[in-house]
Amino acid sequence: MQKSPHAAAAADFLAFLTNPANSAKLAQFFPPARSSQLTGRTLAKSAPLLKPAQLQSVVIDGISKGVDKPSHVGMDEIKQTVRAALDPLWKSSPSFSHGISLWSRWCICPTAACSPCRRR
User: Fold this and answer.
1) Any idea what the Cα angle at residue 48 is, between residues 36 and 112, rounded to 5°?
2) Model-level pTM?
3) Which of the 8 DSSP states describes residue 73?
4) pLDDT digits (tens, 9 = 90+) for 37-94
5) Which ranges in the chain belong to alpha helices (H)?
6) How far, in whole angstroms, is CA 19 from its chain's centroid?
7) 26, 59, 66, 99: least CB-packed within 10 angstroms?
């Protein structure tokens, strides 16, 4: 940001975006940018179905203590192979059940009990 010809404008925008009032507004959709607002009470407003313990262990602890793990070195090749295999299955259809039936044939969930296909 310091090398930008508009560094001052960028800093002003960042300050505006992350001030307490705007950060609270953004917290409706995303975890808050301010650590002071990263609380169970703040998150419960946007996710009322989750329990405080879930919010703490998954969201708050995940943000404050989480680490980024490297992805597979060949991830681009894997994605391309999967896309190429799934493209022939595409049908322009408003039928949700058609999509789910296709998904259930190709689903490889480790638990074999994902919600879309309900395989048990």
Assistant:
1) 110
2) 0.43
3) T
4) 788 887 888 888 888 888 888 888 888 888 888 878 888 888 888 888 888 777 666 5
5) 7-17, 20-26, 40-46, 52-54, 61-65, 75-86, 96-106
6) 23
7) 66
Q: Residue 12 has what pLDDT?
A: 92
Contact 108, 102 (CB under 8 A): no
CA dihedral (87, 91, 95, 97) positive or negative: negative
CA contacts within 13 A on the Cβ side of 104: 13
- The predicted pLDDT at position 107 comes to 59
Within 10 A of 104 (CB to CB), how many other CB atoms are there? 13
pLDDT at 9 exceeding the cut of 70:
yes
Q: What is the pLDDT of residues 14-27, one digit of tens each?
A: 889 888 888 878 87
Dist CA 102 CA 53 (whole Å): 36
How many angstroms separate the Cα of 108 from the Cα of each of 42, 97, 103, 114?
36, 18, 9, 9
Distance separating alpha carbons of residues 44 and 26, to the nearest angstrom: 14
What number of CA atoms fall less than 13 Å from residue 105's CA on the CB side?
Answer: 8
